[in-house]
Amino acid sequence: MPSLSYQEKSLYGELVADLAVFLPYFVYMHLHHATLTVSIIAAAITILIAIQIVLQIVIAAFTRNRLKDERDRLIRLRGYRAGYFTIVGVMLFGMGALWVHTTLGQINPSHLALHFLTVFFAVLMIAEIVKTIAQLVAYRRPL
Amino acid sequence: MPGLSNTLRDLRATRSMTQQELADAIGVTRQTVIAIELDKYSPSLETAFRIAHVFNVPLEQVFQYDPPSGKRK
Prior knowledge:
A: 4 helices
């Protein structure tokens, strides 16, 4: 078992929080997509923030050395680059899918704003997970 | 890391210095020292000079660059 730095532990905490919120969110949205509401997205964000705060406090409490160095900063930048490309790629796909479904009449135009919000939130969530995983991988690979 | 190698582990061993002690001396995490020793990370010029300074040796005694063969300008 390799030793983990504070940054790595923190990233694992982020990943756990992301998955704990986003997986149930995706499952719920898939099963109940007829009842999409802004309050569900707001609840997901609130729960995510709460879990993140608790996990980060616990990780910080049990980690003596919380130093961040040049390698951590470089890995962070790589993660954000991966997240950026994910946002661009998945957003294009999401907007395209939205356009196709609207054109085919499968989406009620009056609900378009809500569907756009759902796609936008999903893109952000996917990008966040990709960013975190990219950072975790970078910690174990040559830079 | 292709082309770049270092003698960090040997220098540390001759001075009976732990990875954590070196990390504290140059202001990085122990994981970064491990990554440098395993040639998985090339440190910044500033960190490289700090390492040389800690061991009180010239920079080229810590890091060696072997240019890839077959690439000529």
